[in-house]
Specification:
The complex is a heterodimer of chains A (269) and B (348). Chain A contains twelve helices and two strands, in the order H-H-H-H-H-H-H-H-H-H-E-E-H-H. By secondary structure, chain A is an all-alpha fold. Chain A has a single domain, classed as MetI-like fold (Orthogonal Bundle). In chain A, strands 1-2 form a two-stranded antiparallel ribbon. In chain A, helix 1 crosses helix 12, helix 4 packs across helix 7 and helix 11 packs antiparallel against helix 12. Chain A starts with 8 loop residues before the first helix and ends in a 6-residue tail after the last helix. The mean pLDDT of chain A is 88. Chain B has 348 residues and is α+β, with helices and mostly antiparallel strands. Chain B has two domains: 231 residues, 3-Layer(aba) Sandwich (Rossmann fold); 113 residues, RNA polymerase II/Efflux pump adaptor protein, barrel-sandwich hybrid domain (OB fold (Dihydrolipoamide Acetyltransferase, E2P)), CATH 2.40.50. In chain B, 28% of the residues lie in helices and 34% in strands. A six-stranded mixed sheet of chain B has the order 6-7-8-3-9-10, with helices on both faces. In chain B, strands 13-12-11-14-20 form a five-stranded antiparallel sheet. In chain B, strands 15-19-16-17-18 form a five-stranded antiparallel sheet. In chain B, a hairpin with a 2-residue loop joins strand 9 and strand 10. The radius of gyration of chain B is 23 Å and the shape is globular. The mean pLDDT of chain B is 86. The chains are: A mainly alpha (269), B alpha+beta (348). The interface between A and B is medium-sized, with 17 and 26 residues.
Chain lengths: 269, 348
């Protein structure tokens, strides 16, 4: 609690500009959520193509995040610990999916994973097809969102003093054990919050998915991810799409807040 | 026992080379060198934590140069302690024992005994984050020692501590070594620490070993200007302490009996800063307890200050200003008095 002082002119201008920025973020979210009555939201949720879409979106994003953890965390560890030529270039490449148009990313993925192409043929051999399938949605989400996980995990590993790992080695631990008992637990918070970001980013992906898997069959339904569902309904008018949009925002928000509070549990603000 | 033959290590910019050391079983060996001389890297190279370009490391008659660090049986303690922050003190110490698949009972017994040895039984349940510097150092020491390493590597273990804690830790380190008797390599930039703890000392300068010897050999036969500069920074004596009057100790250092404030008796090593000694041509009337007459045998000019050696015997090196030298008309061969307080004597 400081003593109230009259703010100077710069603080006043910054406070006004900052407030406008916050309103710009808050108002559309809040207005959309409250545009539909709870009853309408509930009824919308019970529509088959809505709840199947929610399930599909959440599970595909989760699958993408798990794949991201499996392949991305080892890469992040290497980038945090090893020095080699071309490392900066590699780190830049990893962030490319964030900056390119996501529809273009979808096309690029289709060009590699489509059944007539290189990787597509390999996966076709083991019965995995990517065009208009759950797997297609997963790789589209993974492509555009995994940089968040890799970057966050890399920073987490960098923050672990390399001497802790060295001491652990002298105490008889193999590199595997050092990684599992020292590096991973100490970087866990960064990895987890990177995973949450990746998952949330995956949930909201539209561009890449619309190219590779506009709709897919999932648990017996033929359904599409939430962002595509919102866009589809918009073709029938704004008020038709509002409750779905509100649900999409609410679900993302609740999940995001819940997971972040797990990651920062016990930490002072 | 550990032998290092022609070790060569790339420090990224310069090389450590021609590192040859023969360290006896149970010896407390000091590597002394200025900051940035590559002392930490040398320890890591010995432990297998840093790549070695050339040369060999042998322990107990076996070549271990390229063995993985987990197979070498060398414990390391870093200046910043490097305790695992997500584990309790007890779990930190248990880490190496768990890797060795010790049974739970054996683990508990070993941890308890080691905690007793380094004096931290009351800290076992604490988180390392809450400990003071000295406490952390003891935990790091216990963690390294509990796996009974062939060699203990100490990287500036006292460097991060405040002066008071450092002195206490220095004593405790020697006490722990006396009990555990593990072959120890301790690197430091502090000459006094080297003299206080080391059975033998190696001086590292410009990427190679400049001199190896006992602290006494260093003081009396420094092999280079660099070693001499280290040696000049302290008067170091070995002597026998006994009870004097008023609770003072009388320490016989070979002909001269010094009054000192210390609890130590028997064989002791002590140091005296050159700047704490006053020189005069007549005996001084003062509260200082130690006053002796001798002969000026050497005057070493260091610019605005001068090191004057007064031989009683033994030799005392005193630091005075140029101006004082001129005023006292000191030159080699003249008689002079040296005076210093009992409290200026630092007993290890």
């Amino acid at each position: 609690m400081g003593i109230w002082r009259k703010p100077d002119s710069m603080s006043l201008v910054f406070i006004v500009l900052g407030t406008l920025m916050l309103l710009f973020i808050f108002v559309p979210l809040v207005k959309t959520i409250f545009s539909s009555s709870p009853g309408t939201l509930w009824n919308t949720l019970l529509e088959e193509d809505v709840y199947s879409s929610i399930l599909l979106t959440i599970s595909a994003a989760l699958m993408a995040t798990l794949m991201g953890l499996l392949f991305g965390v080892p890469l992040a560890y290497l980038l945090a610990r090893r020095q080699f030529r071309g490392k900066r270039f590699l780190e830049a490449i990893i962030d490319v999916p964030i900056v390119i148009p996501h529809t273009a990313a979808g096309v690029a993925l289709l060009f590699v994973f489509g059944s007539n192409f290189l990787c597509g043929k390999v996966f076709d051999g083991i019965g995995i097809d990517f065009f208009r399938t759950f797997a297609g949605i997963v790789i589209a989400m993974m492509f555009v969102s995994v940089p968040f996980l890799i970057d966050s995990a890399k920073e987490g590993f960098k923050a672990v003093d390399v001497r802790l790992e060295k001491v652990a080695r002298t105490l008889g631990a193999s590199p595997w054990r050092v990684f599992l008992r020292i590096s991973l637990p100490l970087a866990w918070r960064s990895i987890f919050s990177g995973s949450v970001l990746m998952w949330a980013r995956g949930l909201s992906e539209f561009g890449a998915i619309v190219i590779i898997a506009y709709s897919a069959s999932f648990l017996g339904w033929n359904t599409k991810v939430l962002p595509i569902l919102v866009a589809d309904r918009f073709d029938f008018g704004l008020y038709y799409t509002l409750p779905v949009a509100a649900l999409a925002i609410l679900i993302s928000l609740i999940a995001f807040i819940a997971l972040r509070s797990i990651a920062y549990r016990g930490e002072k603000p | 026992m550990i032998t290092i033959k022609n070790l060569r290590v790339n420090l990224g910019g310069f090389l450590l080379q021609n590192i040859n050391l023969d360290i006896k079983s149970g010896e407390y060996f000091i590597i002394l060198g200025p900051t940035g001389a590559g002392k930490t890297v040398l320890l890591e190279a010995i432990a297998g934590l840093y790549p070695v370009l050339e040369g060999e490391v042998w322990t107990d008659g076996r070549e271990v140069t390229r063995l993985n660090p987990e197979k070498k049986g060398m414990g390391i303690v870093y200046q910043d302690q490097a305790l695992f922050p997500h584990l309790s003190v007890e779990e930190n110490i248990a880490f190496g024992l768990k890797v060795k698949k010790c049974s739970k009972e054996e683990r508990k017994a070993k941890i308890a005994a080691m905690a007793e040895t380094v004096g931290i039984p009351h800290l076992l349940k604490r988180s390392p984050v809450t400990l003071s510097g000295g406490e952390k150092q003891k935990v790091a020491l216990a963690r390294a020692l509990v796996i009974e390493p062939k060699v203990l590597l100490l990287d500036e273990p006292l460097g991060a501590l405040d002066p008071e804690t450092r002195e206490r830790m220095q004593r405790e380190l020697r006490e722990v070594h006396r009990r555990v008797k593990v072959t120890t390599i301790h690197v430091t930039h502090d000459f006094e620490e080297a003299v206080a703890l080391g059975h033998r000392v190696a001086v590292l300068n410009d990427g190679s070993i400049a001199q190896v010897g006992t602290p006494e050999e260093f003081l009396h036969h420094p092999s280079s200007e660099f070693v001499a500069r280290f040696a000049l920074s302290r008067n170091i004596f070995t002597g026998r302490g006994e009870d004097g009057e008023n609770g003072h100790a009388l320490i016989d250092i070979g002909g001269v009996r010094l009054r000192a404030v210390t609890e130590s008796r028997g064989e002791v090593r002590l140091s005296l800063r050159p700047e704490d000694i006053l020189i005069s041509r007549e005996p001084l009337q003062s509260t200082a307890r130690n006053c002796f007459q001798g002969t000026v045998t050497e005057i070493a000019d260091r610019g605005s200050v001068v090191y004057v050696t007064v031989t009683l015997p033994p030799d005392f090196v005193c630091l005075i200003t140029r101006q004082a030298l001129d005023e006292l008309e000191l030159k080699e061969g003249v008689r002079a008095w040296i005076t210093f307080k009992a409290s200026a004597i630092h007993v290890f």
